[in-house]
Amino acid sequence: MRYLLKNGTIVSGDQMKKADVLIEDEKILETGPDLHDPEAVLVDVTGELLFPGFIDAHTHFQLEVSGTVTADDFDTGTRAAIKGGTTMVIDFATQYKGETLEEALENWHQRADNRSSCDYSFHMAISDWNKNTAESMEHMMEEGITSFKMYMTYPDMILNDHDIFMALRKMKEIGGITGVHCENSGMIDALTEEARNKGDLGADVHPKVRPEGAEAEAVNRLLAIAGEIGIPVIVVHLTCKEALDAVERARKKGQTVFAETCPQYLLLDSSLYETGEEGRNYICSPPLRKKENQKVLWEGLRNGTIQTVSTDHCSFTTKQKGFGRDDFTKTPNGMPGVETRGVLLYTYGVGKGLLTPQQMCRVLSENPAKLYGLYPKKGCIMPGSDADIAVIDPEREDVITAESQEQNVDYSPFEGTKIKGTIDKVFLRGCLVTDGGRVVKIKQGKFIKRGPHML
Ligand code: DUC
Ligand code: ZN
Ligand code: ZN
Ligand code: ZN
Asked: Which residues lie in coiled coils (predicted)?
């Protein structure tokens, strides 16, 4: 199959170029002005922006959390992804205590294989450090699982400093890269206990028991450990100035540190926890922060101190969120977002003059592709690359509603949010999967083996 996309503007990390794009089968064959091909199906993209398909390097589909399972699995979650211009997700295969990494990987393949509508890979979340884990990490690299995840909080997944140190030392040997959820669990436990003793268990207390200092402390500690070993690490879902300051301090000392943030931290703030019942729907960890942090995060994206925007998509219905009706600690943590990242960044980043389209391309496509060993197969529109393209109509307006979403959730954290710049078409390895903003072809996703990180 051949497609010729006529009269669009190709966006890359450093330029915007008016050019046609010729796709043959799964690949970009050629880009340039005034291309012709009598065999190709013509697609008029006049006035539209062609971004390399967005990569969401932080999703949780079909994950067991707090005795329930996320509302989105790989079927619904990846449909939502392609509707939103995301052509690849990197989910977290999670090793439960007592399990091997091989078992965890097999488990996640079963969840994703033959059901996914965008391409996918997994980070391997290490929750149990032992001798076998070290050897299994090498196997993961052979399987194309070249990135790992560690949690500094959550009882089921937490690793202590000893284990983090040992795992990162092994990581250095095998050349893997690690994303870390940074929050100080001791502080959180103490503050939660205190709130419980006072009977103070409304959603408004959630951000108070997980303060910015708990995140910053964990970032500092992680970076001290990683610095001692001399290994780059990724601070995932960074939310606040204090945490970014810690990252910058480590960089000043010569450390390589990458940082990821998410749309909810850029656009929503902790006052949403004060909205009574509804406040529960915003419970995620780390929590939404005070509004003044948003400026710092946008500036971080603009000046390159934050490299990627992922979603931490971890969705629950309002019924599931309601498990915490009388006790916020029983509310499963997480929010939906895989569907809306691209249009939010375009509208509130590019549209408000906070980011250029090139910077948006970097944080949604190019940087995650490089950081997670996918570039230049993905993350760019160049001859030989996978024909993953998100076509944005920069003038078209829309409003985000739960009712119109593919995500399997009955609410949207961005309900009523106005959008200017919508996802018109999406190509996944040369297959038109979204057209006119609607998903038209599902289950075309493939598992993608990844190489070493290169950012
Ligand atoms: N935070 C969430 O809110 N949900 C899933 C995992 C996480 O770290
Ligand atoms: Zn082996
Ligand atoms: Zn996390
Ligand atoms: Zn997460």
From this structure: none
- Same domain membership, residue 275 and residue 214: yes
> Are the C-beta atoms of 44 and 84 separated by less than 8 Å?
no
Q: Measuring from each residue's beta carbon to the nearest atom of ligand 1, which residues come in under 6 Å?
A: 60, 181, 284-285, 312, 314, 333-334
Element housing 265 (H / E):
helix 263-267
Residue type, 251: R
What CATH number is given to the structural domain containing 390?
2.30.40.10
> What is the number of the ligand 1 atom nearest to the C-alpha of 154?
8
| Å from CA of 139 to ligand 2 middle | 5
Ion ligand 3 residues within 5 Å by Cβ: 181
Residue 181 CA: nearest ligand 1 atom is 8
* 154 Cα to the center of ligand 3, angstroms: 9
What is the 316 CA–ligand 2 centroid distance (Å)?
Answer: 37
H/E element holding 123? strand 119-125
| 96 pLDDT tier (thresholds 50, 70, 90) | confident
Confidence of residue 97 (pLDDT cuts 50, 70, 90): confident
Radius of gyration of the chain (CA): 21
Does residue 454 belong to any structural domain of this protein?
no
- Beta pairing, strands 68-69 & 27-32: unpaired
Last residue of one domain, picked from the residues 371, 389, 408: 371
Give the pTM: 0.98
The per-residue pLDDT for range 290-338, each reduced to its tens digit, is 999 999 999 999 999 999 999 999 999 999 999 989 999 999 999 999 9
Q: Whose CA is nearest to atom 8 of ligand 1?
A: 285
